[in-house]
Amino acid sequence: MTPYITIRKAPGNWTVRAGGAVLGESSNALELTEGDYPSVIYFPREDIAMAFLDESDKTSHCPHKGDARYFSIVTKSKTLADAVWSYEDPKEDVARIKDHLAFYTSDELTVEQL
Question: In what residue span(s) does the DUF427 domain sit (predicted)?
């Protein structure tokens, strides 16, 4: 791994909720730390209810991780646009995040350790 990014198994169990619904729970989440940024929890895709997610047109590029694609979360009351991202083909140094999803937290979207 590059010294700039560290990835480790996130300790304990984690949950992600949006619009009052639990989107997923995992005991296999990863914690990615990049430079001085706050750590981000990446959930295995198989632990997330993908029926709540719609792929969006947004993409981005990180020189350390590669190209990300985004998803919006559809709740009962609204759509949280581009609230989820995934590196489908990450760079070799961060290959562990392949098939994982990360979430932008907000008042309407929480990622919590149980």
Answer: 15-105
Number of neighbouring beta carbons within 10 Å of residue 107: 5
Domain residues for the domain of 56 are: 5-113
Task: Identify the CATH number of the domain in which residue 99 sits.
Answer: 2.170.150.40
pLDDT tens for the chain, 114 residues long, are 457 899 999 999 999 999 889 999 999 999 999 999 999 999 999 999 999 999 999 999 999 999 999 999 999 889 999 999 999 999 999 999 999 999 999 999 999 999
CA angle, residues 43, 45, 46, in degrees to nearest 5: 110
Closest to 43 (Cα-Cα) out of 63, 29, 64, 25: 29
Helix, strand, or coil (residue 1): coil
Specify the number of domains making up the chain. 1
